[in-house]
Amino acid sequence: xxxxxxxxxxxxxxxxxxxxxxxxxxxxxxxxxxxxxxxxxxxxxxxxxxxxxxxxxxxxxxxxxxxxxxxxxxxxxxxxxxxxxxxxxxxxxxxxxxxxxxxxxxxxxxxxxxxxxxxxxxxxxxxxxxxxxxxxxxxxxxxxxxxxxxxxxxxxxxxxxxxxxxxxxxxxxxxxxxxxxxxxxxxxxxxxxxxxxxxxxxxxxxxxxxxxxxxxxxxxxxxxxxxxxxxxxxxxxxxxxxxxxxxxxxxxxxxxxxxxxxxxxxxxxxxxxxxxxxxxxxxxxxxxxxxxxxxxxxxxxxxxxxxxxxxxxxxxxxxxxxxxxxxxxxxxxxxxxxxxxxxxxxxxxxxxx
Length: 353
What we know:
Helix content: 40-55%
Number of helices: 15
Shape: globular
Low-confidence stretches: none
Strand content: 5-15%
Number of strands: 9
Mean pLDDT: 97
Strand order of the largest sheet: 1-4-5-6-7-8-9
């Protein structure tokens, strides 16, 4: 199986774009940049559009999700759209009782903590993913030569929410479960892997040109636990999309000690958070993996000369890698001035690749 002949990666629209070129280790026509959480809370047009609409409802309204995805591309001239959705959408579409509570995050009606709980989980169907495909089709039709990045939550992060039932600071529940009941843990992460993998595949088949797996909470793990109890499920999630041939990216926060293991689940690009300089990340990965990152989001509110110097440092450190897509070392903070992001993009594009 591969992508259809009319897919943007196949028909000439995005294959030579700066983003895809850098993801594949080539020299792009300009330095590519996009931001995690670029569609969202820092944009006044986003807040106006979302007024009175719950988060998961906005993700499942194809026209609304598409417009939100497009807003920052229009405003900032970034080199990719990142599909507007949420990592718990596959749970919602499967029939799991989950909601995004404002100011809290994902909350499950009933946590999943035993083998019986896992066995009772509903199964995600292809038909349930149709709103996702439709939103991607609408978005790609508007993006033209700008690629869309599809995304999904990594199985550990999804499972962490499912076990805790809500966001957690230390993820003790899932970390206990992987040792206390490894069979139930394995079954849970396999369920999460299949849900995330199907979610990502739906986006890629419908027109996304790359895919990113987000492991927001993997930084709470040591390397041994990650390698034994988490990496196999992340590989399983990606197994759903490998045959499509689109570049795959893996990102986590606080994962400086896990970068090699995260690459080894089988991805083309590794995202690096703000804690580790890109030249050191490149050294740890053996110098042959394109990188994505890693402007410190905290500096977006610093005086411009400070921010500019930092951005130039990130660009210089990224030169060591075989490819570099500029990004933040995590998401855009809600209080960020959108004009600062636009100025950062202009700065990045002004520096020769």
